């Protein structure tokens, strides 16, 4: 057996790198260890998480559990990198919002939904006509200087689909006859720069290169509330894109019993409430509570969560190359990026 043997060693959990891991250690790892006496090893990672699982021997994985957003969940499932969990051993799964139980085509066979981030609009406070929804991105009278992500195509295209408004939500992405609409909508926006990182986007605001951006709610809110030099406001539109994270059991782990116990702990309302004090994403437990300013901004009911448009990679994966090439051309034509 590898270091993940059920007879010894900590439960190894892959988490997103950066501040996320520190918050996870303080709000999840510490109380779990104090309450149960079991040990957790948080292993920060990002794009390399799945490749590390794939390259490891199947009976000696590098993690027992891993965080997985919508795309990672799809990729991991397709590549056979996860193992099935038994939701009967995770009773707090009953308290997950019904709409979130439906976001995976397989019913979260390999894990449980834990938290997610809606896309938000960050904008300079001195704008005379600030954008309150993504449709305002094509309103030239608002004098917006916009930045969208230069990374993966999905988040700009979600915004483009919402603006196009030919179908409900981001439906344009899931009907080939409507695929032009999101690109056409983006082409009508005054995009002055495509940002490549979170650090860059805040510099763009400081230097007045942009006054509006689409970005993850929790990160943008943190910058708005802690960095006065940015002079930012942040809103989450009623209909928006975003992502949601599962925590999944990794194939070959022999710690399934402890992993499921830990997943149940992650889903507890009191734990998610405590976590929300420093991690302002949407929590999956319908009874979780939030700081007032968070609860006033993000979707916190099952009905409100229906406006959160999560990507369907079962469909989108067939169009990855096409969408990526079209986005590359669009960015080049708009800003020379």
From TrEMBL:
<dbReference type="GO" id="GO:0015888">
    <property type="term" value="P:thiamine transport"/>
</dbReference>
<dbReference type="GO" id="GO:0030976">
    <property type="term" value="F:thiamine pyrophosphate binding"/>
</dbReference>
<dbReference type="InterPro" id="IPR006059">
    <property type="entry name" value="SBP"/>
</dbReference>
<dbReference type="GO" id="GO:0030975">
    <property type="term" value="F:thiamine binding"/>
</dbReference>
<dbReference type="Pfam" id="PF13416">
    <property type="entry name" value="SBP_bac_8"/>
</dbReference>
<protein>
    <submittedName>
        <fullName>Extracellular solute-binding protein</fullName>
    </submittedName>
</protein>
<keyword id="KW-0732">Signal</keyword>
């Amino acid at each position: 057996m590898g270091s993940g043997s059920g007879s010894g060693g900590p439960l190894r959990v892959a988490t997103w790198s950066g501040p996320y891991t520190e918050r996870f250690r303080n709000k999840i790892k510490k109380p779990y260890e104090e309450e149960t006496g079991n040990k957790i090893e948080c292993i920060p990672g990002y794009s390399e998480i799945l490749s590390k699982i794939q390259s490891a021997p199947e009976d000696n994985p590098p993690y027992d559990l891993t965080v997985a957003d919508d795309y990672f969940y799809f990729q991991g499932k397709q590549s056979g990198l996860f193992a099935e969990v038994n939701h009967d051993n995770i009773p707090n799964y009953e308290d997950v919002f019904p709409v979130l139980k439906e976001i995976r085509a397989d019913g979260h066979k390999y894990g449980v939904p834990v938290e997610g981030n809606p896309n938000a609009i960050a904008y300079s406070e001195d704008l005379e006509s600030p954008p309150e929804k993504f449709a305002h991105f094509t309103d030239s009278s608002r004098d917006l200087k916009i930045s969208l992500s230069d990374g993966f195509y999905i988040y700009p295209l979600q915004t483009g689909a919402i603006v196009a408004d030919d179908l409900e939500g981001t439906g344009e992405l899931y009907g080939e006859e409507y695929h032009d609409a999101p690109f056409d909508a983006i082409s009508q926006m005054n995009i002055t720069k495509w940002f490549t990182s979170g650090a860059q986007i805040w510099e763009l605001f400081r230097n007045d290169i942009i006054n509006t951006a689409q970005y993850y709610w929790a990160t943008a809110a943190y910058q708005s509330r802690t960095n006065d030099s940015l002079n930012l406001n942040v809103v989450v539109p009623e209909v928006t894109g975003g992502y949601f994270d599962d925590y999944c059991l990794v194939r070959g782990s022999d710690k399934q019993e402890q992993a499921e116990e830990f997943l149940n702990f992650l889903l507890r309302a009191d734990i998610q409430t405590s976590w929300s004090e420093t991690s302002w994403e949407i929590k999956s437990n319908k009874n979780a509570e939030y700081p007032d300013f968070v609860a006033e901004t993000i979707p916190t009911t099952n009905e409100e969560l229906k406006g959160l448009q999560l990507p369907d990679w079962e469909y989108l994966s067939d169009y990855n190359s096409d969408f990526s090439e079209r986005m590359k051309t669009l960015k080049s034509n708009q800003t020379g990026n």
